[in-house]
Fold this sequence. Notes:
Layout: H1 9-12, H2 39-46, H3 58-69, H4 79-86, H5 93-101, H6 110-121, H7 123-135, H8 145-158, H9 166-176, H10 179-188, H11 198-213, E1 223-224, E2 227-228, H12 232-247
Antiparallel strand pairs: 1-2
Helix pairs in contact: 7-8, 8-11, 10-12
Amino acid sequence: MGEQQPKSLWEYGVPDTTTGALSSIVRPTVNAANFELKPQFIKFISNDSFAGLANECPVSHIASFLEKCDTVKINNVSEDAIRLCLFPFSLRDRAREWLRDKGVGTFDTWDKLAKAFLVKFLGQEKTAKLRNELATFQQPDDESLYEAWRRFLRLQRQCPHHGIPEWMLIQTFYNGLTHEFRIYIDAASGGSLMSKSPTEAKELIERMAANDNYHPSGRNSAKKGGKYDVDALTSLANTVQALSHKFD
């Protein structure tokens, strides 16, 4: 083979445009003879793109992205390779610029990329805000037990590293409920929810929340003149139903 010709001065002034050379993601090694990601699937990924806005949840984005990637299986192609190839298509605007601004070849595994993404877009300030929302959880007067419980679980999903033990989470949720719903739960628990183990208490709340979702009367009425306008018959019916479940 002949000797490689030296670069000209002009070539030294032009960036290397080899495919992937300027990317922060290292092109994964693929042993498959034919590896192609269909344009339809790339569009499927990009339709749910993350921009890096304050109201977006990076944890939810990662979870949704992985669910979509798990629908694709290609022989001799690793999950890491598929995820690394597709992830840039799931970003736009500020988030896409962040990925481009990382050093060339920074990410050679999915784990490194996912962790860096979460550190950037979850961060200390957002984590502190979510932890505070968990610790100071309160149920509004017009929110059903079902809605309150789902909102509380959503806060936990958005901040999986909150570090709050299970028993404290259950206490926080119970203490954040309105007086009427605390009475309702205590009646169903046979006296007091605090006498239950964290697992038993959580299972009871799950069952009652699911039941409350199908009974609009389980909602609190709005405050009027500093007093709750609660239908006495509805309250009695709820208590009887809870005691009936207990006897069952």
